[in-house]
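Shipment paperwork, digital attachment
Item: protein structure file
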Amino acid sequence: MSYILGVDIGTSGTKTVLFCEDGTPLASATYEYPLYTPHNGYAEQDPMDWWNASVNGITDVIRESGIPASEIKGIGLSGQMHGLVMLDAEGKVIRNSIIWCDQRTGKEVVEITEKVGRDRLVEITANPAITGFTAAKIMWIKNNEPRNYEKCKHILLPKDFIRYMLTGEFATEVSDASGMQLLDIPKRCWSDEVLEKLGIDKALLPKVYESPEITGQITKKVAELTGLCEGTPVVGGAGDNAAAAVGTGVVEDGTAFTTIGSSGVVFAHTSDISIDKKGRVHTFCCAVPGCWHVMGVTQSAGLSLKWFRDNLCWSEMETAINMGVDPYYLTDKAAMEVPIGANRLLYLPYLNGERTPHLDPNARGAFIGLSTMHKKKDMIRAVMEGVSYSLRDCVEVMREMNINVSDMMACGGGGSSPLWRQMLADLYSCPVKTTQNKEGPALGVALLAAVGTGIYSSVPEACHAVISADKVQNPIAENTAEYEKFYGFYKKLYPVLKDSFTDLSRL
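Attachment content:
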């Protein structure tokens, strides 16, 4: 039996899991770290916090499992995407990382669009310029911290900084690099044209690999620090969503997953590149060599229900504590008492603006049709349905792009709700499943390590061997027909309210 290690460098913490080659988790450790917000709209983290969490996690799982380090055949890395890590000539961190959710780069987004041209930018990088991508962060440093930019000799993404610390190699892989807005997505390499137009030296960027390729080996120093064996291979790994795709078996045409966390994501695999010229969804290289994925985002998915729970469900939260259950168990039970359509009440889940399909930071949440007949349980159902309609919007864009979405996995906190999964199945008109293994990104990159070290011959083979469905919600025809009435009405609401959202933002 061989063993593989997955390290997932997230925003709230780093999770390290040691797996058997069959995907069974043997030991897991998570270390959290702070998020810094020095100004409104800023979001930063200290890369050394990620490193310390990685070292501690690796050390813990080796000790806890009792597995000899010599039997760990490879390591995969996953991580939060888009973060900017800058190193000097000695490989030292210059400043805190500006991470994915930072919003300071509005002027730089305009600058990038003007210098490259919106249509050309979409053609090369498959996405319009947005504040979250790394390119805008680099331009912000150039414009606002020129001394730091002059000192910078290496630019890395969060997980790739951990790779450098583990192996001494400056490397990235295509899925995570796709989110920098500097990669030629069709050609899977750095875009000389974009770099030249933005004035970014290509020498600052690491070498680009495919996700299962070996990118380096554990150094002697790290072996002494963690208990790993010197020379253990480290593969490319993947950005968090691409890693989650491997961890849920979404690695072939027709397969997709929906995540309902704070935000919502619909992620579909495609072996043929497809780019939405309107920029409503992201197209990135995926972790399967030679393939891509398309991803739609609902900004406030699980966050909508959490907002409602925290502000209006105090009695349910107290009852849940007394019963020893999750408060969402009670909100699910309440929503199940309400018919489809929530008694003609609709909810727009735009609490913090929207990404897919509207790309509108000014959009805001709304209940439409509220009357004296409605009770709290109607509003809970309306929130869950509104999020589901927004996720259906993502699927509709993908179908418009001729991407097959017929086999859907569900994950994230909302994916654990049978009611929410049934809503998605009915609205997508396809089965919605969960997987037996819940480790997600950590399992995904561990499987990439298994492929890179020869345990499996390909990513699909690894997934077929390890991942199996657990619960399955099949669409119910009469539900689908009923939902279509309300979804059709839902789609009419944003166009009517768009100008009002803009005007409201200016008051």
